[in-house]
Design a protein that fits this description.
The complex is a heterodimer.
Chain A: H1 2-27, H2 30-61, H3 72-93, H4 100-103, H5 105-116, H6 135-163, H7 174-207, H8 215-235, H9 242-265
Chain B: H1 2-12, H2 15-35, H3 41-58, H4 68-96, E1 108-113, H5 118-129, E2 134-141, E3 144-151, H6 158-179, E4 181-188, E5 192-198, E6 201-218, E7 224-234, E8 239-245, E9 250-252, E10 255-274, E11 280-286, E12 292-294, E13 299-307, E14 316-323, E15 326-333, E16 339-340, E17 348-366, H7 370-389, E18 394-401, E19 407-414, H8 422-437
Antiparallel strand pairs in B: 1-19, 2-3, 3-18, 4-17, 5-6, 6-7, 7-8, 9-10, 10-11, 10-17, 12-13, 13-14, 14-15, 16-17, 18-19
Helix pairs in contact in B: 2-4, 4-6, 5-8, 6-7
Classes of the chains: A mainly alpha, B alpha+beta.
Chain lengths: ~270, ~450
């Protein structure tokens, strides 16, 4: 399939951008990061094209085509693109050069896993009745946008924890890293909230119940609670630094369990994704 | 006594209590997903052993989300949200609707001399400092004009709105729990009922639901495409036809009907019973649980179960057979042909045809709290976007007439809640003003 072939090349393009970002730590030259950004941007553009092709192809091979957001493979390739976009938005909004080498491995791994893992079903399948809903797009996209924002905060939180006891570093000051963690969560939290709310509204139409304590629902709530704790402790109790960085790491572990863990460990209503 | 009450109230509304309750809710919720909920005792015994099951069951962990402990935690959370919202909301409301200009200590200041007239400077400053998310306040004091731009105070209401919307959602849920209902009904084509079942208890609706037709649409590869129940709602005063599909519930009499499942069962089986001599003793349709009796042969046959595919052998019926005072249970498949009834001296029984009937699983739900839940949903989405808009920087521009006559512009600023990006924003503003004014 053409889209899969493009995504294979995109994996290598992301790999190249990662190497360029690593090279920055050897050369300390801004131009290397800009080159890496351009390569990552081109990869993201091709990634988007591959998704659109898959979407178009679904209308050819199925009676009713659908947006590529309906199974584990599609969620991985969309998440991978959103992770790259999160990095690119960060670069457009700030002047910091440090993040690429640490952020790009995430979309690279997600895409490589989606493309190579034998257990991941890559075919385009028709939609079962429960998935035939307009809520699907907004629910899945907002959830994955929030996951990408939380992934950004997680990476910066890990860097914060590594940086905090070092006097000199190529990384920005810990105060800046601390604020970046907060900024990622400030973006991710409304998106996760909208994701949960739209999922809940969809469940209302599909199953007649807003909330069924399905494991995926429950773990998304747990994730939401962890980030709610982050916001409360930061804004009301003035927590900064190590404690909020650790909360960000815990939050992303909850995200990963919501995304992957629930599917592999626990069965429930979300078995298709 | 009042002091203890006051201290308890203080603790209930404290951030420490919020943190404790949220952590407990998260931990209990996680435990519920890992243990598994409302499964059969066998499921728990297999996973945790008899002792483990006994412990889990006695602590209500097998139905944790409906347990007293979990609901008590939710109540404590509600109390905490109400008390802390009551404590901080008035101040936030006053701030949100205040017309006064907030004060700030600038961290960056830059002054330059402009070559334009004061009126032109004012126009340009207005244009450069205005943003939809900012309030721009302009004041004049003699020859001095001040512009202040800061996040709109209404954005400080984000936390209040989020808290109120959580309460609205929980209140809506409570209303539905107290005054609503939810139950399931199973209907086969042509049948009707006014009974719904919830937790093994039957409840009656004020009207009857008749399933006129059930349609199962399949894709070419056999995957289900659509389940459609065409029903008729019949009350004393009106009759209404409707289609119920997954994601498209029907509403009648304030009750929403959802397509939640379907299954098939045997409608009738065409069977033949032959004597040892090969004579046909019976040939015709047999219906589930309606016996076929052959007194001359001292034989009674009754269909008690049906499998669409018995161990890969295809459709099969499970028969209860009584012959000469002895009773047997035998499976007869469509594929394997005639089956000899044991101890009967050679009477054979054969399944020659069958037809299935669809049962449509429909959930009937009445939720009086629905408007509150929707209002809460919309408000929480709005409330969470407010902090995003309210974290921006504060800027000030002061236009003064210098002694030389040319106006000077002093731009100052301070970061908002998020300092990252402030330097860029400040210097971009200054450069743009300089480019157009100097």
């Amino acid at each position: 399939m053409l889209s899969s072939e493009i995504l294979t090349y995109v994996t290598f393009v992301y790999g190249l951008s990662f190497l360029l970002f690593m090279f920055y730590y050897l050369t300390k030259r801004e131009g290397v990061v800009i080159a890496g950004d351009i390569v990552a941007g081109l990869g993201a553009a091709a990634h988007l094209v591959a998704l659109v092709i898959r979407w178009i192809v679904s209308y050819r091979v199925l009676e009713d085509g659908h947006i590529p957001l309906t199974n584990f493979y599609e969620s991985l390739i969309v998440f991978s693109l959103l992770l790259t976009l999160a990095y690119l938005v960060f670069r457009l909004k700030t002047k910091y050069l440090f993040l690429g080498a640490f952020m790009m491995p995430l979309p690279l791994l997600a895409l490589a896993y989606a493309s190579l893992a034998p257990e991941v079903e890559r075919g385009i399948r028709p939609l079962i009745p429960a998935l035939q809903s307009n809520w699907l797009t907004v629910h899945v996209l907002t959830c994955f946008f929030s996951y990408a924002a939380f992934a950004f905060s997680f990476v910066v939180a890990i860097l914060y924890l590594w940086r905090k006891n070092r006097e000199k570093s190529i990384l920005p000051p810990i105060k800046t890293l601390d604020e970046l963690i907060y900024r990622g969560i400030l973006v991710g939290m409304p998106l996760l909230t909208i994701g949960i709310i739209t999922g809940s509204a969809w469940a209302h139409y599909a199953w007649g119940s807003y909330w069924s304590w399905d494991p995926k629902e429950t773990w998304s709530l747990i994730t939401w609670i962890v980030y709610a704790l982050f916001l409360h402790t930061r804004l009301m109790a003035g927590w900064r630094g190590t404690r909020t960085a650790v909360l960000s790491v815990i939050g992303f572990i909850a995200v990963l369990f919501t995304f992957f863990g629930v599917n592999f460990v626990i069965s429930g209503l979300h078995t298709y994704l | 006594m009042s002091s203890i009450f006051k201290e308890s109230l203080e603790y209930l509304r404290s951030l420490r209590f919020t943190v404790v309750v949220l952590i407990l809710i998260a931990v209990v919720s996680a435990a519920g997903t890992l243990v598994g909920q409302n499964q059969s005792p066998d499921y728990y015994v297999t996973r945790f052993g008899h002792r483990g099951y006994h412990i889990l069951n006695s602590l209500a962990i097998t139905d944790i989300y409906h347990s007293v402990t979990f609901n008590a935690l939710l109540l404590l959370l509600i109390a905490n949200i109400i008390l802390c919202t009551v404590a901080f909301a008035p101040k936030r409301f006053r701030g949100a609707f205040s017309r006064s200009e907030p004060t700030f200590a600038p961290t960056e200041t830059e002054t330059f001399t402009a070559t334009k007239s004061t009126e032109d400077i004012k126009k340009i400053v207005r244009r450069e400092m205005s943003r939809p998310s900012r309030r721009l306040v302009e004041s004049t004091d003699g020859d001095t004009v001040r512009f202040s731009a800061f996040p709109r105070p209404i954005f400080s209401l984000g936390a209040v709105i989020v808290h109120l919307s959580i309460l609205l959602i929980l209140f809506g849920g409570l209303l539905s729990f107290l005054f609503g209902f939810s139950g399931d009904m199973a209907l086969k084509e042509g049948s009707s009922t006014d009974v719904i079942v919830f937790n093994d208890t039957a409840y009656s609706l004020d009207f009857t639901v008749r399933l006129d037709e059930f349609i199962l649409e399949l894709y070419e590869d056999g995957t289900p495409k659509e389940y459609i129940s065409n029903v008729t709602f019949i009350s004393e005063t009106e009759t209404e036809e409707a289609s119920i599909m997954v994601n498209h519930p029907a509403v009648f009499g304030g009750v929403r009907f959802y397509q939640i499942s379907l299954w098939t069962d045997l409608e009738r089986a065409a069977m033949e019973i032959e004597s040892p001599d090969g004579d046909t003793l019976y040939a015709g349709n047999v219906f589930p649980f309606i016996p076929v009796s052959l007194p001359e042969e001292d034989l009674l046959v009754l269909i008690v179960d049906y499998s669409p595919d018995l161990s890969g052998l295809g459709p099969a019926v499970h028969l209860f057979v009584r012959n000469a005072g002895r009773e047997y249970g035998i499976w007869v498949t469509l594929a394997e042909g005639a089956v000899k009834i044991p101890e009967s001296g050679g009477v054979f029984i054969r399944l020659t045809d069958y037809s299935q009937v669809f049962y449509s699983g429909i959930s009937a739900v009445r939720q009086p709290g629905l408007p509150f839940i929707w209002a809460g949903f919309i408000l929480i989405c709005i409330g969470f976007t407010f902090p995003l808009m309210g974290t921006g920087p504060r800027f000030r521009a002061v236009i003064e007439k210098s002694k030389a006559g040319a106006p000077t512009v002093t731009v100052s600023g301070a970061p908002g809640r998020v300092a990252v990006g402030f330097d860029d924003a400040f210097h971009t503003l200054v450069h743009r003003l300089k480019d157009t004014l100097c």
